[in-house]
Each structure stands twice: as structure tokens, then as C-alpha cells.
Design brief:
This protein has about 55 residues and is of the alpha+beta class. About 40% of the residues lie in helices and about 15% in strands. It has 2 helices and 2 strands, in the order H-H-E-E. Strands 1-2 form a two-stranded antiparallel sheet. It is elongated. The two termini are about 20 Å apart.
């Protein structure tokens, strides 16, 4: 299936943003995922996984 008109319009507006703003927004779409035995108060940040926008 192709993209909807709304999705295409959103992609076009997103591409108009500055690269810095695009990186910031993409970073917000990613959630921290800790490996087994990871403590969130540790010095190294946890790896991140992309947020699934299709799930509701």
C-alpha cells in the first residue's frame, strides 16, 4: 500500500524543518530499552528502540 495524502503532507512539512529539529524529533520517537541487568542510574545511557507509531 502507498502512503496516504496526510502522511505525504506530513513528510513534506517535516523535511522543511532544520536538520537539528529533525534529529530532535526523531530522538523523541525513540524509547530507552534496557538490556537484562541494566540499571537506569548507571553512567552509560541505555540503548534506544524506535517507537512503533502504528500500534494503538
Amino acid at each position: 500500500m502507498g502512503k496516504s495524502k496526510l502522511k505525504k503532507a506530513a513528510d513534506k512539512e517535516f523535511s522543511k524543518l532544520s536538520k537539528k529539529e529533525q534529529r530532535r524529533i526523531n530522538g523523541l520517537k525513540r524509547i530507552p530499552v534496557a538490556g537484562p541487568g541494566y540499571r537506569f542510574d548507571a553512567k552509560t545511557p541505555p540503548r534506544k528502540k524506535k517507537w512503533d507509531e502504528t500500534e494503538e
